[in-house]
Amino acid sequence: MRTWTPPSPLPGPLETARTIIRLYQKGDGPRLYAAVNACRDLLWLWLPWATSDHADIDDSIFFVEKVMRRSREPDCRDFPVAVFDRDGATFLGGLGFHRIVAQESTAEVGYWLRGDRHGEGLCTEAAAAFITAGLTPQADGGWGFRRITLLCAADNIASSRVANKLGMRLERRERAERYSEHAPTPGYLDSLGFAVLASVWDFETQRAKPAIAWPPPA
Questions:
Q1: Which among 55, 167, 178, 196 is most buried, taking Cβ atoms within 10 Å?
Q2: Is 178 exposed, middle or buried (0-12, 13-18, 19+ CB in 10 A)?
């Protein structure tokens, strides 16, 4: 079994019908801050970092510089990326591969969308392309993961809806796994764990193939 290592170079920009997904670049900080700050109260319902991170433009500039520097290191196991609209003018949100287990070639995907652009299907569109790149072999220009997971609060209907639209399998429910003081019902919340394997991903439609019942019907 081959241990996963970051592709070199890292996969380049991805284009969808309405978005561009790319690595962070110098100068992204102010637009990142504007995207987080657009509707911060919607983000912090489910993302604890939104309550403290990116408190001002300087914080976001530092974040971008840190991500750029860290992503160049061969032992990096956390790769946040930026999502822009097609003309590159508006910072829409973020994606990322996190909690990478190199020995297993697995990663957890994360995503967020600026609050004033919810309900347009942009997150599903961008996540589909990003997961496709994640499961594509490195020899073909992808990240080379064997399995990608997603963990979200059970009450976060929008996030689980994205996973369902992409055909990711619900594998587990973790009781009282996380605490949120900003959720609609503050307190300890259940989390849902979704996953998809490269072997069941349809690279053409950018969705998981329909589940096959076993045993097959007579």
A1: 196
A2: middle
Q: How many helices (H) and strands (E) does the chain have?
A: 5, 10
- 95-146 per-position pLDDT tens digit: 999 999 999 999 999 999 998 999 999 999 999 999 999 999 999 999 999 9
Token reading at 48: 């604890």
- Dump strand ranges (E) for 70-210: 79-85, 91-101, 106-113, 147-153, 169-180, 187-197, 201-202, 207-208
The answer for residues whose C-beta is within 8 angstroms of residue 78's C-beta and 6 or more apart is: 70, 96, 97, 98, 99, 100
Output phi, psi for 108, to 5 deg: -100, 130
Residues in the chain, pLDDT under 50: none
